[in-house]
Amino acid sequence: MAALSLPAADLAPDPAPARLWWAIKDTWVLARRSLARIVREPEQLSDVTIQPVIFVLLFTYVFGSAITLPGGGSYHQYLISGMFGMTMAGSAPGTAVGLTSDMSTGLIDRFRSLPMSRAAVLAGRTLADLLTQLIGIVVLVTTGLLVGWRIHNGLADALLAVSLSLLFAFAMTWAGACAGMLLRSPEAAQALGFIVFLPLSFVSNAFVPTQGMPAWLRAFANWNPMSAIAASCRALFGGPNPAQSVRIWPMQHPELAVVAWSVALIAAFAPTAVHLYRRKVLK
């Protein structure tokens, strides 16, 4: 019996543009799936809705009266701009928890059996988390306006501040994706937020100026990417910015520092996360 043969065109791999197009479509489908899950379980948004409100009210009305800014200025104006960095960094633990949950429930195994891009699973999750950060920005801005925060520069500078914040959030989601591939349970991923990301937020100029810190801690805080995003938002929103008197490169050029940190984080964590995912699904 003659062997069944297929045309060479059916056996040839798809050209690169077609593969890219299908990867983009797969990414969007999986992002929509994550967003639809949030609609069914809105409590997942507590980290971008309730948490920013708690921190703003806590630092404004409990600790704010005890904090003096170098050169003077309103602590309300100082705080809200600093909160942009912390809110965006909070996307990393959320991504890690989401991916470890999918791994533990076997959802990733089902994705593995489908003819879809391997990178789309992680890219879809990070895109969905980035879109939820827009909700966090709206909540933060609304809460800030209620406690007296105002935007003193033009709309263009304000949009640039938001864009830089979202770029940093996207970079942090890839860090969370990498952590999600390494950790074994949602509980471990949630603990990571308290062990790594929460201290990283506080050892910065997000809540207090770094001038009062010990020299060894001040050096770390001034190079912390959280400090760069906070300083850039303060400069662009037109609030008090004591960091501009700190004579190191990230504080003198915070906008460029945010872009540099974001690109470096994406370049380091995105390929690593995809590699770890492929290694897991091939086991």
The gist of it:
This protein is mainly alpha-helical. Helix content is about 75%, strand content about 0%.
Average pLDDT reading: 83
Tell me the strand percentage band: under 5%
Number of helices: 13
Number of structural units classed as domains: 1
Largest sheet: none
- Report the structural category: mainly alpha
Radius of gyration: 21 Å
Residue stretches low in confidence (pLDDT < 50, at least 5 long) are: 1-12
What is the distance, rounded to the nearest whole angstrom, between the alpha carbons of the first and last residues? 38 Å
Short descriptors:
283 residues, mainly alpha, 13 helices, elongated
Question: What can you see in these coordinates?
Answer:
It is built from 13 helices and no strands. By secondary structure, the chain is mostly helical. It has one domain (31-281). α3 packs parallel to α7, α4 (75-89) runs parallel beside α8 and α4 crosses α11 (225-237). The radius of gyration is 21 Å and the shape is elongated. The two termini are 38 Å apart.
Write the SSE topology.
Layout: H1 8-11, H2 16-40, H3 46-63, H4 75-89, H5 91-105, H6 107-112, H7 118-146, H8 155-182, H9 186-202, H10 215-223, H11 225-237, H12 249-252, H13 254-281
Helix pairs in contact: 2-7, 3-4, 3-7, 4-7, 4-8, 4-11, 5-7, 5-8, 5-9, 7-8, 8-11, 8-13, 11-13
